[in-house]
Amino acid sequence: MPMSICNVHVEAKNKSIRDLSKENCTFFWFQLLIETLLRMPQTSSAKSDLLDLCRQHYDGNDEELSKINEFERCYCCEQAIWWYTRDSFLYRQLNKAFRTENIDIIFKFRFFIIDLNKQLYAMHNNYLELLRTYFNKLTVYRGQAIPTEELERLKYNIGGFISMNTFLSTTTDREIALIYAGNGSDRPTHESVLFEITIDLNALSTDKPFVNIKDLRYFNGTIQQTAFR
After folding, report:
1. CA distances from 202 to 124, 182, 199, 209 (A)
2. Each residue of 83-133: pLDDT tens digit?
3. Which of 24, 169, 206, 211 has the fewest CB atoms inside 10 Å of its own CB, making it the most exposed?
4. How many CB atoms lie under 10 A from the CB of residue 70?
5. DSSP 3-state of 51
6. Domains and their CATH numbers in the chain
7. Alpha helices by DSSP H, 7-88
8. Measured between alpha carbons, how far is 159 from 222 in angstroms, rounded to an integer?
């Protein structure tokens, strides 16, 4: 899960914006890029850009080329979440592009990013209303190993903002998230981290949708999984 850390504190917002560091400026430009991309029209050339890029990258890999051909034949926008949760070229290449903030590759994935975002938006309001019927807050978890230097930056930025640079999958089951976090075996280069995210359901903006994807993901199971943008 790549992330941007923005050292802006709410209580000193105006002054902090004037004193933004180079990294924080990059954070805002990247967010602007994604928002602009999401407003672009869907075209056949956008899909061709995605397919051409993936075929070039997986040239000689018959298994992935077969999935790319299947995507070309069978994909429809209502299956965006299903394809994103499948272990395939889409998930790996898109997350790599977000992790490295590779603008060229992100642009060529615009066809799929737009559809995935639209599907999340289409389901968000109904899911939110259902949650509000029973809860005021929702707590979800994500476990993963992150680079040690990134963890230190998080510690330094307590009270500031962080932004996840990709679509984010979480679970309501803390024990499952701990499994994904690992046991610290990657030290000293990486640390096992459990993110606990508490969402105030009555104080949400609509520009960052999230939904329960248990019935839409590629793999079957009973684990409640929530996806965010």
Report:
1. 14, 33, 9, 14
2. 998 999 999 999 888 888 889 999 999 999 999 999 998 988 888 888 999
3. 206
4. 12
5. helix
6. 16-228 (3.90.176)
7. 13-18, 22-38, 44-57, 62-74, 80-84
8. 35
